[in-house]
Amino acid sequence: MAESPHERKPAGHNPLGEKIGRRAERKRRSREQDKPTAWFGLGMFGLVGWSVAIPSLIGIAVGLWLDARWPGLPSWTLTFLIIGVGLGCLNAWYWIKQESRDE
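The structure corresponding to this sequence follows.
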């Protein structure tokens, strides 16, 4: 006789608990590894790249907008590009510091 969907599962069966247990075990094994994997390196490379690229592009966009509104001797695009790169480097430094603290 087939079980109906309304019948109770055995007391020991907990799919959420099993899923959490598998994730915890996977996390424990990854923490026990001595050296980071290639995927970790690629992930950090991407994190640092995007952490610098996004503020730089925002700085360029703001600078171009300001140059169109108030043209003059100071190049707003160059000024905000430098500010964006500086903020991006600070942002990347922060994330690298966070990752090295977790290990």
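The longest helix spans residues 38-69.
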